[in-house]
Structure formats: C-alpha cells, structure tokens
Design a protein that fits this description.
The protein contains 11 helices and 18 strands. It has about 425 residues and is an alpha/beta fold. Strands 1, 2, 8, 9, 10, 11, 17 and 18 form an 8-stranded mixed beta sheet that branches. Helix 3 packs across helix 10. The longest helix has 16 residues. The chain starts with a helix and ends in a 16-residue tail after the last helix. The mean pLDDT is about 95.
Amino acid sequence: MRYSAFEILKQGLSGNKGWKPVWREPEPKAEYDVIIVGGGGHGLSTAYYLSKVYGMRNIAVLEKGWLGSGNIGRNTTIIRSNYMMPGNQPFYEFSLKLWEGLEQDFNYNAMVSQRSILNLFHSDPQRDAFVRRANAMILSGADAELADEAQLRRELPFLDFDNARFPIKGGLYQRRGGTVRHDAVAWGYARGADSHGVDIIQNCEVTGFDIENGVCTGVQSSKGRIRAKKVAVCVAGSSSRVMSLAGMRLPIESHVLQAFVTEGLKPTLPGVITFGAGHFYVSQSDKGGLVFGGDIDGYNTYAQRGNLPVVEDVAEGGMAIMPMIGRTRLLRSWGGVMDMSMDGSPFIDKTHIEGLYFNGGWCYGGFKATPASGYCYAHLLANDTPHPVATEMRLDRFKRGHIIDEKGQGNQPNLH
C-alpha cells in the first residue's frame, strides 16, 4: 500500500477502513540466505537495502523484543556529518545524503528536519580546532560554516555569551544537520523491507550460533534452529554478549547513555546546539519539549536506565549556555546501552568465522549512521567486500595500528 495525499483523502472519506498492516507477522522459515540478528535501525536498514538495492529476498530479521525497543527508540534524534577523520567523514556524509532522500525512498514520513546543528566554541584554540574540522568537512563534500560571536548574538540572543567561565566566541554550523523522528525511522525501514519480502520476526531471541568447522550455518533461537548461508549481527549495546555466543571477544564495552525531555515550551531553539566546554546537546521537539543529553554514565552496564550524578552534570551544561531554562521542569529521562569501541569508531566487517558478520561499536553515533550503516552492511553481505566509504571500519584495525581516533582520547571507551 503506497502512502500519498490522495490515499489519505480516500481513506478519510471511507471511514479509514482500508488501511493495511504496516508489516506482516510471519513465522520463521527453516532456512534463509541471510539472517540479520537485531531488529533496530541498523538491522532493519540492512534488510531494506539488501532487498531493494541488491535484490536479495530470502532474508529474516530476528528481534528479541519488539521493533524499536532498543537504541533506535532511545536516542536524541540528531543527524549530522561534522566529522574530521578520513575513515569517518565520507561515511557520515554518505549517511546524511541518504537521510535527505529517505522519506521519498521508502515512502514513509520519518519527519526529517534539516534545521541545522551548531557546535559552540569558547576559546581561541577550540576555534582553531573547529576551523580544521570545517575544512575536512568541506573537502569531503559536506557543508560547514564558521560563525563569529556577532553573528550568533544576532541569531541566538538567549545564549549566555558573557559567561565568566565559558564565554561563547563563535560556533561551527552544519546547516544540513538536524533531527529525525527515531521511531518513524524503524517503522519506515521495517515497512520497506517487508514490502520486498523480508521476514521480520519479533520476540525471537538468538541464543546461539551453529558453527561447524569454522563456518556459521545458522542460529539457535527461542523459536528453534534456523539455518542460513550468512548471519549478520547488529545488536548495539548487546554486541559483546551476543558475539560471545560465537566464542568472540570484542574490543567493546557497554555503557548507558541517558537522554532527557522537558515540559513543552514555546518555539525557542531553531536547531541543534552543542556546548563546547562540556558534553551537552539540545534540540526542541515538535511537541515543544527540549530534548537533550550528555556524557555516558561511565560504568559498564546492560541496564536501560541511568543515575542522578549524570542528570546533574547534563543540567549544569545546559545552564552554562542557556540560563533561561533554569525553571523548566524535566518530565522524564531514559537510557540506551552504548557499544563503546576502544577508539570511538564503528565496525562493519566479516569475522574470522566464515558466514558470520558483525556491525557495531557505534558509541554515540549510531542513530545518525543508520542509513549508511545499513547500506554499507548490505554491500558487504552481498559482495563480501567493504563499501568504499567503510573500508577503514575493520575489526582488526587495532592489531594493524590503523585506529580511527576521532576524539584523540586513546583507547578508553568511557572517554569516547
């Protein structure tokens, strides 16, 4: 069923009785060409592009809960491509280009809003670092704009420019950045994949892998054994736990990242704003609430909840640049389990087990990477060679000494 203005009018006149389910609820078949473990944004986008672009139809997506129950529904919805390292920037720019045509591509309203993202800087050395980043962005084909203090005073007069500790001296704009409705991304990819014949199987937990003579031949699940020619894992914060079922130990730690939303306010923020002297980022939802987040909580966990010290830290970051929000009430917070890699950059690669593939280590960047991650993972599964923009996202890069250390923090996942 194709969505359109005409279809909405037609259904409205007929009592909305003709709408069809967005996707099927099939039982698993005995064998598939590809099994994708994980029904989040990356797993669903992989299935979509694998079926649509590479013409594979005998595919299953196995999700232990319901679609959208993981990190795809537990993030701050920001999209951007303001990276610097050669192993990252072309990939995220490719992802942003896919975002720009996504709704027309899978015929679903994902509420893509390119309302801009602004990274504030508070010192001369930080300005120089942002100039370097902007140049790297422009060289990769992305957009970047340096704004001085005078420009920001005109555009965002509510910011605390004269803060004694963190004076705002300017910022780096990416006007094409913005936000997307996270749940709608999952639903849109699920609907698109289902329309191409992909079986999306919810409440089906993978409990083991069938590995014979170094070859993965399928999975064991709560719905029985399912055979497959290829098995692709993308389970975000559960990566280490799931891959341990195949006897693998990953260079990944699992940490919780909290996000918050306030009561509804009148339109205030034109786009996304980030604090340069701490970890705080904020946007305003269509309902008026301020959506913001900060650092990970800093301890290893699989729990989707956080703790109060980080709530305080994030609130302090917000107050440092926007004291006007001091009387705003927080409505709720939630947590997503982050798969934090040792250098802060992801993996899209084959494993040493034939037929077993891995996608993970997205740290803070998983949501914005959703389209490119799925596209590049589909390319790898279809061709057994990495996509040109994902050639550096190898599992063995630490052994080879080819790390992608975007933040320059070294091999400490809690700093990335």
